[in-house]
């Protein structure tokens, strides 16, 4: 962790228990070494003139400084135990509990302290006797509660220490900058203790630092149950090796009820080319890319080719320089020939890269968005391959932009934790194959659920679209703060798009999405220029194949809205590049999310954009279909995505769902082997 990041308020909250418990422990052992001297025979004559004054001074000043340290340990420990991922809850809670237990010894020491602070009692020769009794209790308390309180806080803090290198539970425990940052403890210590640090303090400091890795090994030995069922050693990424992978061709029969239907795709079966990375540990990485049926098997075949490039690699070797890893995955010259960086091979790359991110997040016990949010600007930029885009954005520019965005980042991070970072818009009512009664009912339902943005598919005919848009405006109104968008799914030529949309202008759509071919940058620019006088913007991106196409759209001023797709491009890394370019060209991010698993993915990306990159509150598409098949589905409440906090990338599918809808699947298990599937399998291919 860079020293600069240490002073971020959220980071300080995470480190506060380490600092306060360290200062309290050092105070405790300083007391011991300082006062034990007076039990020596040759020093006992100094008890009367020194010890009573010491304890009176302690209560007059030292106690007022010591108590806040315990209050910080307890208070911030409790706060962190509620706001951290589950992997750190136990550590923080234990630290707070041990610190609180310190005060259970008060009855055992108070009467001794009263005697020691009383000169009259000491005049009777009992000072040394009471001092020994006090030191006995003090020693027990230090061993039983103060040292454990300190011991459990570094593992908790390590869960956020570094997102670009292996967790603190291995070699980075001795990372110079981390301990240098904790050098503030020395200042805290000197402010609390009224005597100089002894040589023993320096020795204790060194031993404490060196002992932590061995303590973790002891924890592994006594069993993972002692630390919440997770072995600390299992989190060492350098020891996690990818041993293989598997693919699943999963298809859901959405063509039966026209879910997902639009002007270009009348009857798609929402599908996932699914990738599972396997390791020699308990961790697996899950990724997928979205298709609409036939051809899903081709993407699965491409995943198999890319998976072979990962076998035998350790997780740490992949994530320590993400930009280098990403280029390695796209640089197989023979596979590159069938791209390059586009088409089926790039769809497969998205699934594989996202599976690595999912695995990485699980080992850190965090959601993907939080890993990125806790990166330094330099770590963020190292995730990106800047080849082909430095004419639009250089790494140096990107770092500068990210540093500028850090103003207000802590507040935005808290908004994310409070699930107020990503407002949702709905397409669920707008599928072109839905009848008007169904559309009307769904619009009323989503309006009642707090949605403010609504998207409808267009492109069948001007007459039909005007009638449908009229129904929508009757329900959502023109002056109630509700926003209407429309989507043509590439069905028009450039002149057709301009003419068609002029006839829909009186319904005041915010934008027309995919008015023409996704590769036609000049066409989008022409449409945008022609529709600007009508107050209609242009949006595209769900079919943009890579960062290079987005670069051209942004540099040409061809779009008003940038619609990244989580797996059409090469996974998280390439998306991060587009987020930065969109910020530079001041174009809002509104991700494409109309497909199986896409809301689960894109909720992370929109959160990253808001918290880390743009700082601009935008909206994210939500379609209320097929979420029940995921272990950690996206959830909408009061019109907002509920920020995902489960470790990973949220697309891990339930095993029973994969078995049920795998294509062609096993006889007697897969839906596609049943008679219900015959209308699709034997029907017209459209």
Gyration radius, in Å? 31 Å
The gross shape turns out to be: elongated
Number of strands: 12
Q: Kindly identify the CATH topology of the largest domain.
A: TIM Barrel
- Tally of separate helices: 29
Instruction: Tell me the count of domains.
Output: 3
Taken as a percent bin, the fraction of beta residues is 5-15%
Q: End-to-end span in angstroms?
A: 54 Å
Descriptive key words:
3 domains, disordered N terminus, 8% strand, 12 strands, TIM Barrel, five-stranded parallel β-sheet, three-stranded antiparallel β-sheet, Enolase-like, domain 1
Which helices and strands appear, and what pairs or packs with what?
Layout lengths: L2 H4 L2 H28 L10 H37 L2 H16 L4 H11 L2 H5 L3 H25 L1 H9 L14 H6 L2 H9 L6 H24 L19 E10 L19 E9 L5 E7 L4 H12 L7 H5 L2 H9 L2 H4 L6 H22 L3 H6 L3 H5 L13 H11 L3 H9 L6 E3 L9 H13 L4 E5 L4 H15 L6 E5 L6 H9 L8 E3 L7 H11 L5 E4 L6 H9 L5 E2 L8 H14 L13 H16 L6 E3 L13 E2 L2 E2 L13 H7 L16 H4 L5
Parallel strand pairs: 4-10, 5-6, 6-7, 7-8, 8-9
Antiparallel strand pairs: 1-2, 2-3, 11-12
């Amino acid at each position: 962790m860079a020293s600069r990041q240490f002073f971020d308020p959220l980071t300080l909250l995470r480190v506060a228990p380490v600092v306060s418990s360290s200062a309290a422990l050092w105070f405790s052992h300083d007391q011991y070494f300082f006062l034990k001297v007076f039990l020596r025979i040759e020093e006992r004559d100094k008890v009367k003139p020194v010890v009573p004054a010491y304890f009176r001074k302690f209560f007059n000043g030292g106690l007022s400084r010591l108590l806040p340290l315990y209050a910080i340990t307890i208070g911030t420990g409790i706060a962190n135990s509620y706001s951290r991922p589950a992997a750190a809850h136990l550590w923080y809670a234990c630290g707070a509990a041990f610190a609180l237990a310190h005060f259970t010894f008060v009855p055992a020491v108070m009467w001794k302290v009263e005697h020691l602070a009383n000169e009259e009692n000491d005049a009777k020769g009992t000072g040394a006797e009471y001092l020994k009794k006090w030191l006995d209790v003090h020693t027990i308390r230090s061993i039983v509660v103060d040292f454990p309180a300190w011991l459990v806080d570094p593992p908790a803090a390590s869960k956020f220490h570094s997102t670009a290198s292996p967790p603190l539970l291995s070699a980075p425990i001795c990372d110079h900058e981390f301990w240098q940052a904790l050098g503030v403890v020395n200042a805290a210590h000197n402010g609390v203790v009224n005597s100089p640090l002894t040589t023993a303090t320096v020795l204790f400091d060194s031993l404490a630092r060196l002992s932590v890795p061995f303590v973790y090994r002891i924890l592994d030995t006594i069993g993972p149950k002692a630390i919440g069922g997770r072995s600390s050693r299992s989190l060492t990424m350098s020891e996690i090796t990818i041993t293989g992978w598997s693919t699943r061709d999963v298809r859901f029969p959405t063509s039966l009820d026209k879910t997902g239907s639009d002007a270009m795709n009348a009857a798609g079966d929402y599908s996932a080319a699914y990738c599972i990375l396997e390791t020699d540990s308990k961790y697996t990485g899950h990724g997928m890319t979205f298709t609409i049926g036939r051809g899903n098997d081709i993407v699965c075949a491409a995943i198999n080719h890319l998976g072979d490039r990962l076998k035998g690699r350790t997780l740490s070797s992949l994530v320590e320089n993400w930009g280098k890893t990403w280029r390695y995955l796209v640089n197989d010259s023979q596979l590159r020939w069938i791209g390059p960086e586009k088409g089926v091979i790039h769809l497969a790359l998205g699934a594989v890269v996202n599976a690595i991110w999912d695995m990485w997040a699980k080992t850190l016990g965090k959601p993907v968005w939080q890993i990125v949010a806790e990166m330094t600007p330099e770590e963020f930029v190292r995730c990106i391959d800047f080849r082909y885009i430095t004419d639009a954005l250089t790494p140096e520019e990107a770092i500068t932009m990210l540093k500028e965005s850090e103003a207000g980042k802590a507040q935005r991070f808290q908004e994310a934790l409070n699930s107020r970072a990503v407002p949702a818009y709905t397409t669920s009512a707008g599928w072109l194959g839905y009848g008007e009664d169904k559309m009307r009912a769904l619009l009323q339902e989503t309006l009642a659920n707090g949605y403010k943005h609504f998207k409808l598919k267009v492109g069948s005919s001007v007459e039909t679209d005007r009638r449908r848009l009229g129904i929508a405006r009757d329900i959502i109104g023109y002056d109630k703060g509700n926003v209407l968008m429309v989507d043509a799914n590439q069905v028009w030529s450039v002149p057709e798009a301009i003419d068609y949309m002029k006839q829909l202008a009186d319904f005041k759509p915010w934008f027309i999405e995919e008015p023409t071919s996704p590769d036609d940058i000049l066409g989008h620019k022409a449409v945008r220029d022609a529709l600007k006088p009508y107050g209609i913007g242009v949006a595209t991106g769900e079919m943009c194949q890579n960062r290079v196409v987005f670069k051209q759209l942004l540099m040409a001023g061809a779009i008003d809205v940038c619609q990244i797709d989580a797996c059409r491009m090469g996974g998280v890394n390439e998306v991060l590049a587009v987020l930065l370019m969109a910020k530079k060209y001041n174009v809002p991010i509104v991700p494409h999310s109309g497909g199986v698993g896409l809301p689960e993915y894109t909720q992370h990306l929109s959160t990253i954009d808001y918290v880390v990159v743009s700082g601009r509150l935008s909206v994210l598409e939500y379609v209320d279909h097929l979420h029940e098949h995921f272990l950690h589905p996206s959830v909408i409440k009061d019109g907002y995505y509920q920020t995902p906090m489960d470790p990973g990338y949220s697309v891990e599918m339930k095993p029973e769902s994969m078995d049920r809808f795998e294509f062609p699947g096993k006889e007697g298990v897969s839906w596609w082997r049943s008679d219900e599937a015959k209308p699709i399998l034997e029907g017209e291919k459209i």
